[in-house]
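Researcher: We plan to redesign the surface later, but first we want a full-length starting point. Tokens attached.
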């Protein structure tokens, strides 16, 4: 559906776009205007609103409308083992944590990992499978997975996927970590039990640290430099000394954060909070 552009619909569009930015830091520049207009037009229809201005009024008075607007304006594209080099690097890091544990340096009972924009769950489940596949593992792990989009979090928690979404799995993982389900295929409980899902807006304070690993991948691209800098500083503060940050391909910290050390690995660049500052 498309909406007729009038002065009042332009004003309502601007109001919603500004509100979205204040609420979620999602910055929709003019170049993405038509995408935003299309999704808002669908929402006008879905909520039986008369106009964009009417949708905005409903949004102000109903948390359900507000959540559905936010959900509709997020892009939840993801996949299992997206950027395989990251999961190889995670395997090496886990081996490092395991030997730190043997020497008593890691003084906490669990390695703590936060997947900070987990979309529909493929990323944190890939982390969990990497942990479970680790040989001679000497630690236990806790994975917190969060996202702004409530529908994505619900789908992630359920752990059911269509068959074709499993095509990038390493050999043997499908049989080891998935089981048939009524709707497609489901992540086995041994994997699901490692991950806790929760809605979280990156505009809010991060969940309390220390985090040994943070995955914040393919979400910085939706923010402007001012918010990227603010967010990265907050992530830095909740990270354990020596903790590692994973960001998406092409999401460089250059120009927005100088706190982290770069940590090149085969096929990717990671960022590390120095052990000693
Ligand atoms: C493209 S997906 C990336 C998923 C996964 N990290 C990956 O790399 O495959 C971006 C995710 O960021 C989430 N997101 C956008 N703005 C957010 C915010 N302010 N707080 C938390 N999550 C946000 C979206 O809902 C979406 O699921």
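Model: Full-length starting sequence:
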């Amino acid at each position: 559906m498309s909406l007729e552009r009038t002065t009042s619909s332009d004003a309502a569009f601007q109001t919603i776009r500004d509100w979205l930015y204040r609420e979620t830091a999602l910055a929709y520049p003019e170049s993405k205007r038509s995408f935003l207009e299309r999704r808002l037009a669908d929402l006008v229809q879905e909520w039986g609103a008369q106009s964009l201005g009417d949708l905005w009024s409903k949004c102000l008075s109903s948390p359900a409308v507000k959540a559905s607007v936010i959900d509709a304006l997020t892009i939840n594209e993801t996949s299992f083992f997206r950027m395989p080099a990251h999961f190889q690097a995670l395997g090496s890091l886990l081996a490092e944590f395991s030997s730190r544990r043997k020497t008593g340096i890691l003084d906490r009972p669990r390695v703590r990992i936060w997947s900070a924009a987990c979309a529909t769950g493929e990323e944190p489940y890939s982390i969990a499978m990497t942990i479970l596949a680790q040989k001679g593992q000497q630690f236990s792990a806790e994975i917190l997975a969060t996202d702004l989009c409530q529908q994505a979090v619900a789908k992630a928690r359920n752990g059911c996927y269509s068959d074709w979404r499993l095509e990038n799995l390493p050999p043997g993982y499908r049989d080891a970590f998935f089981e048939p389900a009524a709707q497609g295929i489901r992540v086995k409980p041994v994997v699901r039990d490692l991950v806790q899902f929760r809605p979280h807006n990156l505009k809010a304070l991060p969940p309390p640290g220390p985090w040994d690993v943070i995955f914040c991948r393919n979400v910085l691209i939706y923010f402007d430099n001012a918010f990227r800098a603010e967010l990265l500083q907050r992530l830095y503060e909740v990270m354990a000394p020596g903790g590692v940050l994973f960001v998406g391909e092409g999401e460089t910290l250059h120009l927005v954060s100088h706190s982290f050390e770069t940590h090149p690995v085969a096929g990717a660049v990671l960022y590390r909070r120095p052990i000693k500052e």
